[in-house]
Each structure stands twice: as structure tokens, then as C-alpha cells.
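Postdoc handover notes: sequence design on the structure in folder B. Input C-alpha cells:
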């Protein structure tokens, strides 16, 4: 009986130590610039619904479109909250504002909604260009599958640059520069 209790105790201690080590390892690897960059790329390039595009299209005056330069999209009701929910933990405040002002963030969903396409990320690759204690610059490549309304599926590659910044010990995307027009073209027309 004592031997059985000892085995159970050893098992429980081993289990608890394993859980603590797992927690520590996952905590250390979750807050890396690479982990945040990959999580952001997965979030941005996975387009399976059109929530942000819907907010924009339902809020624009009848004589303008959601792509109209005169529309200040940050002022659309509910849009800022939706962006914060989707990207707030991954981007700096300034980075998010720049991406919205430059129409980078809503561009993919607007194009996907217009063409009835969806985009699924298969893989992300990061190449470090510059490193310091407070920032990282990456060139990225995302392999994704586009699913068009007519059920044609095709794989494609998307690239650009990510500028990461350390904010309060957390890594966040500070600037996001996808290759110009690449995502919109792929969603509307198809892979080259």
C-alpha cells in the first residue's frame, strides 16, 4: 500500500512540475517578436468573414463607397471597437491608426466581400532584416489558399514588411507594409 501511495505521489509531483515547466516555456515563447508577427499575419490574412467590411459598407452615405478617400473610416460607428478587438493586442496604437488611415486593414475584407472570396493561411515565413533590443524588422511571406465564389481554389503567396516594436515588455506590430495592391488583386482576380 505504501508503495502505491509513493508512486501516486511521485506521479502527482511529476505532473505538477511538468505543468509549471509547460507554463513557463509557453510564457517565454509567446512574447517573442516572431510569435506576435506570426499571430498578426494569421489574423490579417485569414479572411473568412466580412465583419469590418460590413461595418464600413453599412455606414457610408448612399453617394460614396467604402473605398472612397473622403470617407474617414475611423469615424464609422463601431469600427474602432471592432479593430481594437481584432488587432489591439497585436499592434501599437500608432500602428493601428496608420494602417486604418492608409486603408491597409480594411482593404482585404472589402475586396473579399466584393468578390465573394475567402482566404486561408497555410504558412508564414519571417526573415529578419534588422534587430535591436527595442525593435525588429521582418520581410514576410505568407502562403495562403484563396477560395473564390465559384469554388475554384488556388494557392498564392503574399509578401511585405513588418516593423515590430517593444511596448511595455510586449512585442507589437508598429508598421505593416504589405506589397501594394497584392491582396486586393488576388481576392478579386485570382492568383497570378
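Designed sequence:
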Amino acid at each position: 500500500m505504501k508503495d502505491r501511495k509513493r508512486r501516486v505521489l511521485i506521479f502527482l509531483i511529476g505532473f505538477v512540475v511538468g505543468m509549471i515547466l509547460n507554463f513557463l516555456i509557453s510564457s517565454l515563447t509567446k512574447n517573442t517578436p516572431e510569435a506576435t508577427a506570426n499571430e498578426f499575419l494569421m489574423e490579417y490574412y485569414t479572411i473568412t468573414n466580412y465583419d469590418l467590411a460590413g461595418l464600413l459598407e453599412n455606414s457610408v452615405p448612399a453617394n460614396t463607397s467604402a473605398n472612397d478617400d473622403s470617407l474617414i473610416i475611423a469615424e464609422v460607428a463601431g469600427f474602432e471597437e471592432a479593430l481594437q478587438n481584432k488587432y489591439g493586442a497585436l499592434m501599437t496604437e500608432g500602428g493601428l491608426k496608420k494602417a486604418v488611415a492608409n486603408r491597409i486593414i480594411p482593404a482585404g475584407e472589402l475586396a473579399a466581400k466584393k468578390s465573394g472570396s475567402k482566404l486561408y493561411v497555410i504558412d508564414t515565413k519571417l526573415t529578419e532584416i534588422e534587430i535591436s533590443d527595442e525593435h525588429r524588422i521582418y520581410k514576410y511571406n505568407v502562403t495562403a489558399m484563396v477560395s473564390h465564389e465559384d469554388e475554384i481554389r488556388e494557392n498564392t503567396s503574399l509578401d511585405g514588411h513588418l516593423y515590430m516594436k517593444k511596448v511595455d515588455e510586449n512585442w507589437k506590430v508598429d508598421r505593416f507594409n504589405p506589397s501594394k495592391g497584392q491582396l486586393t488583386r488576388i481576392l478579386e482576380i485570382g492568383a497570378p
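Context for whoever picks this up: Residues 21 and 28 are 11 Å apart (CA to CA). Don't rerun without checking with the PI first.
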